[in-house]
Amino acid sequence: MGRHTNEGLVLARLVVVVLVSLGVVAEAGRAELLSAEEQLLLEETRPILQRSMVDRVNADKRATWKAALNSRLEKHTVKDFKRLCGTIMTPVPDLDSSSFPVLEPGRNDARGRTISPADLPESFDAREAWPHCRTISEILDQGHCGSCWAFGAVESLSDRFCIHGFENVTLSENDLLSCCGFECGYGCEGGYPFRAWQYFKRTGVVSATCDPYFDNVGCGHPGCSPVYDTPVCNKACVNDDLWAENKHFATSAYYLPSDPEALKLELYTNGPIELSFNVYEDFAHYTSGVYQHLYGDYMGGHAVKLVGWGVENGVDFWTVANSWNTEWGEKGYFRIVRGTNECGIETSAVAGIPFVQGGKRSRVAEMYRIVVSVKPLELLANLKPASGRQCLEMSMYHIFIG
Ligand SMILES: *[C@@H]1O[C@H](CO)[C@@H](O)[C@H](O)[C@H]1NC(C)=O
């Protein structure tokens, strides 16, 4: 074994020497040898969008989607794109319901009807099901910040406030991004979707009118370039509202089972869900159709919002809202193959139920705590206890920068 390694090393050195003498490395503009890190750096400074990828996908008979060079990612290098999508620290394991809360999906819809899987339609779109909820059909832009984990969570919770509480409110990604701190991960360098929902439950989240994205400094929607460090937590509204009174809470935070039927049931009854999946190079080139991964390297994990499902030319798909503005994909949305856990999209779905009282949320945190202990009994009954350590381990599996 050791002998092999030594031989390999000698051989590698020889190859390097030959390459150097051939001037290959010098051609790359470097006087000395490129280390593995430097090579990676060189690779990461090329544009993410490649004409060759577009041609390859569009010529592939297996492809149920079309590729193109979209303007949203035009100026993005591989490194920029990875920042949007991030890195999964360790592989996502099969979700084990004994180690953290996995909630059975909703059985009762927002109108109080009991729904069984057999009642579910062949296609569904949350934008049409709840047309009075403005936020469901909004497409946002996370800019150059790896905040997908916050967008997927805040967008889903905003929608759910309207669905469950008949309240149009756009909640604040900025509150989550800047004030959740290490509990949620690393701000613009990535975070844990599930921790975002725990923050909604524990701390609540203010509205975007109180705390706009990047405090409206250099980085409002759409886009935020070149300023993209994690914004500072101020805990003060930019308008006249009081921070503590503006908080909106969730009564629960849970994972859903890795089961497409469970995801459908939850979306149909409780509203949009935060999903996470693995992003490859070809995904950056998506422009229309039902995506399945075909080509390219792994770029990282990404969090998004599930809004519907359907069937096209015999292919089952999910309809998903991205946070890369409306020039990307199908006016900001994409569809992805459903039922086969494409790119891991059916594992690690997270959500929570908003706290609303008689159609109006409580404005007082203390009151919330009292009410929550008696209110969602049906939710608590299904909640599996999780120790802090197990939660920590879980979150290590689920770092998604996005
Ligand atoms: C939300 O706002 C839209 C207009 O933007 C309105 O049509 C709708 O009725 C509002 N929904 C609620 C629940 O207030």
From TrEMBL:
It comes from the Eukaryota. SMART domains: Pept_C1. CDD domains: Peptidase_C1A_CathepsinB. Residues 1-28 form the signal peptide. Pfam families: Peptidase_C1, Propeptide_C1. Keywords: Disulfide bond, Glycoprotein, Hydrolase, Protease, Signal, Thiol protease. Residues 120-353 form the Peptidase C1A papain C-terminal domain. The keyword Cell inner membrane does not apply. One of its GO terms (biological process) is proteolysis. GO terms for molecular function: cysteine-type endopeptidase activity. Belongs to the peptidase C1 family. This is Peptidase C1A papain C-terminal domain-containing protein. It comes from Marchantia polymorpha subsp. ruderalis.
